[in-house]
Structures are given as C-alpha cells and as structure tokens.
Known about the structure:
Distance between the termini: 20 Å
Number of domains: 2
Number of strands: 19
Radius of gyration: 17 Å
CATH superfamily of the largest domain: Jelly Rolls
Order of helices and strands: EEEEEEEEEEEEHEEEEEEE
CATH architecture of the largest domain: Sandwich
CATH topology of the largest domain: Jelly Rolls
CATH class of the largest domain: Mainly Beta
Structural class: mainly beta
Number of helices: 1
Shape: globular
Amino acid sequence: MSEAVVVADVHDPADVHGVHAAEGHSRWTCLARRTGLHGRWEAVEWAWLPPGGVSGEHRHSRTEELYFVLDGRGEITLDGRPYPVRPGTTVLTGLGRRHGLRNTGRRPLSWLVIEIPADAGSHTFTKGTTMYDSPHVSHAVVADLRRSGPVDAATVLTGPLRTVRVTRLLPQGTAELAARDVEHTVYVTDGVGTVEAGTTTVALAPGVSVTLPLGTGARVLAGADGLEYFHAVLDVPAGEEHQ
C-alpha cells in the first residue's frame, strides 16, 4: 500500500465576502481537492459564518454537496423549507436542489463541505428520506450522525460519495483505513492522536484533516483521552480514476 496522505488544517482560513451573493463575510479554506487524488472529488472544504451570517441560497447544476456541522447553530433552507442544524448534523443535497445556510446562534457556525460531481448520465434522482419526514424535501437528507449513525450517501446522491459517519475511538483505540477501490477523508472533531501510513506519522488534533488517496493504507491511533472524527468514503471504481 502507498504511504501518500493529504494533510491540511483550518488554522489560516481566507476571509470571503458575499458568499453566494449574500451580504457580510465568512471564512473558508480548502482541505483537499482533485489534485493528488484519483476519485471524482471536487473539493473538501471548511467554512465559517459569524453570528447572523448567511451563505446565500443557490442551486447546484453540476455538483452535489454534503455539509457536516462542526460548531454553532443555524438553519439550512432546502428548496425553500427551513431546518435547524447543530453540531453533528449532516445535510446531503442532490443535483438540482436549492439550499442556503444561516447562522442563528450566538457563536460562529462552522461546517465541512464535500462537493462531488454528479453522475453525468443521471437525469433522475433517488428519493431520500429525512429525519423530519417532510414531503417538501426530496433528493436530500438531514440527519444527526452522532445519533442516527452512518448514512449511505448513495441513497440520495448520484455521484461516488458513499458512507459518511462520526467515529469515536476509546483511549488508545485504533482503526484501520485501507483505500482499496475507495478514498477516505477524515476530519478531527475532538481529542488527539496520530495517523500512521507506512513511515509517515501525522499528529491529529481538532481542525486537522487527512485524506487518503487510492492505494493508501493507514492506521488511526487515539490518544489518552480518545479521539473523534468525521469520516467520508468515496468510491473509485476500477478504470474510472480521475486523471
């Protein structure tokens, strides 16, 4: 297995003004992109809004998106209908859906974004379910990963994103990640530890992201107080590697 890993953190984000035509500012940083990876990723990103901040409503005509809320409280609008979000909430938004996000709390709102190209040959979408049992939202899922457990993105999205979950390792616990026919991205939400890929060792702490390209094997080790991380898997079928 390869020892290649893509490591990034959120400690030096860019200031962005007018996100999706909304007033005010936000912060943003790219954690991984297609460069150096084999799967059909568009990007893995971190975003931030101040209290009262807005990421304007917009429609995706080419890509699908996952949001995972890290901190703060807010409200996401899906095709005109609002839903509350909090740490642990994940939102899967399919091709053609319209969404926007607002910080309704007193603290900054931060979240992960995974943007994936939709299946180019798809003209219809698999109907997903939502935790709110609403007939007004189709091709979208809103769920609390810490409460509901893993979500299979393929039940909603047409692209290659597969299982998304929150993993909690006990103190000194370990997890093995093998990027065979898939690629992994993890983002640390709590605790410290390390990830080992061959002779490469990366220190893990909140705000650190590690993405494993196709063919990479890695071992995640939790520190003395345990480790929690968001984990997403992208399918990379043989012969369909991104060039």
